[in-house]
Amino acid sequence: MEIIEKKYKNATECPITVFMDKIGGKWKPVIVWLLLKNGTMRFSELDKSMNGITQKMLSQQLKSLEEENIIKRVSYPVIPPKVEYSLTEKGVTLSELLEGIMKWSKSNLIENIS
Question: Which of 41, 46, 100, 113 is most exposed, with the fewest beta carbons within 10 Å of its own?
Fold first, then answer.
């Protein structure tokens, strides 16, 4: 086991905290997971795939992931507007991590939910 050599002055210096701030939360991991599993998706497809999220919140989460270069947004100049979202190369690197979280959750959390 690696010993942590640096004592962080505050939590914002911790790499795990940075990750959770940028990619964690209720909706961002779900968006990334959907794009990993389905490839390119339109806004309406993402919206229909996620129960409980408002369109405003979905839009905010997509914008935030785009700013972090996790997803890319392609807008086509047609009427009605067509916008597609997909993972960037950086976003695809989350695959192994999210697969591990999914596996761990199924083994340790989901089975314990009544």
Answer: 113
Number of domains in the chain: 1
pLDDT tens column, 17-72? 888 888 888 999 999 999 999 999 999 999 999 999 999 999 999 999 999 999 99
Record the tokens describing residue 50, joined without a space.
């996620």
- End-to-end CA distance of the chain, in Å? 34
Asked if residue 74 lies in contact with residue 83, where contact means CB atoms within 8 angstroms, the answer is yes
- pTM for the structure as a whole: 0.83
What is the extent of the structural domain holding 20? 11-112
Rounded to an integer, what distance in angstroms lies between the CA atom of residue 73 and that of residue 76?
Answer: 10
CATH no. for residue 65? 1.10.10.10
Helix axes 55-67, 28-38, angle to 10 degrees: 80
Portion of the chain with pLDDT greater than 70, in percent: 86
CA neighbours within 13 Å on the CB side: how many for 49?
16
